[in-house]
């Protein structure tokens, strides 16, 4: 598997952004010391700036990734040489990400594993948080769902200025991100100890 595949999929699992938001992420928007990812409006479906809190594990992954791609504008630069006037984006595409998922067996044909996609990480976060009884509005905000529907589901009857406030409930979202990250890390480390995965490590 390509060296960029592991950090890409782990960050997708931990932060659950829309696929292209992560694929096109830039180092200039990452603040490792503050543990924040400042996503510009152009990369958001809502067309509003958005602040994504980063868990301790996400920061560790980004620090390691920075040693590989920190000299480039993007976290995940394109893996093929680019020529002048190349129409391809300067970062990896969705096909690269989906191929990495399939190589792990999540292709719908491997026994015991479902058919997974990059967008599926968003559904996974929503389902896990809902099952665990986490606050609905905080979960929706963690997914960048700053919308009328999200507020109504949380019991709010009117729209407030924080609909476009990129750091609204930041502390609550930071705590949620840390909880979610710890849950994934425990599962990840447990899976790494299975005999099958030890052989392929």
Tell me the layout of helices and strands.
Elements: H1 5-15, H2 19-23, E1 30-31, E2 36-39, E3 50-53, H3 56-69, H4 94-103, H5 120-131, H6 136-142, H7 148-153, H8 170-192, H9 195-200
Antiparallel strand pairs: 1-2, 2-3
Helix pairs in contact: 1-3, 1-4, 1-5, 6-8
Instruction: Specify the overall morphology.
Output: globular
Strand content: under 5%
Compute the CA-based radius of gyration: 18 Å
Please give the alpha-carbon distance between the first and last residues: 12 Å
- Average pLDDT confidence is 87
What order do the strands of the largest sheet run in, or round the barrel if closed? 1-2-3
Proportion of residues in helical segments: 40-55%
In total, how many domains does the architecture comprise? 1
Query: How do the SSEs run, as a string of H and E?
Result: HHEEEHHHHHHH
Output the number of helix runs: 9
DSSP E strands, number = 3
Structural class from helices and strands?
mainly alpha
Question: Biggest β-sheet, characterized?
Answer: 3 strands, antiparallel
Low-confidence segments: none
């Amino acid at each position: 598997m390509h060296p960029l595949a592991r950090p890409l999929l782990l960050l997708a699992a931990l932060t659950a952004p829309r696929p292209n938001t992560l694929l096109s992420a830039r180092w200039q928007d990452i603040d490792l010391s503050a543990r924040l990812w400042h996503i510009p409006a152009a990369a958001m479906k809502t067309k509003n700036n958005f602040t994504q809190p980063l868990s301790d594990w996400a920061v560790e992954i980004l620090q390691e990734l920075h040693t590989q791609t920190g000299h480039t504008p993007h976290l995940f630069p394109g893996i093929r040489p680019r020529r002048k006037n190349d129409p391809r984006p300067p970062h990896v595409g969705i096909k690269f990400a989906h191929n990495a998922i399939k190589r792990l067996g999540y292709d719908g044909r491997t026994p015991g594993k479902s058919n997974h996609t990059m967008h599926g990480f968003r559904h996974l976060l929503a389902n896990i948080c809902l099952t665990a009884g986490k606050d609905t509005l905080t979960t929706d905000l963690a997914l960048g769902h700053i919308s009328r529907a999200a507020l109504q589901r949380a019991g709010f009857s009117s729209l407030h200025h924080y609909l476009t406030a990129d750091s609204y409930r930041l502390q609550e979202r930071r705590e949620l991100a840390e909880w979610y990250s710890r849950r994934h890390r425990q599962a990840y480390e447990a899976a790494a100890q299975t005999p099958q995965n030890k052989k392929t490590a």
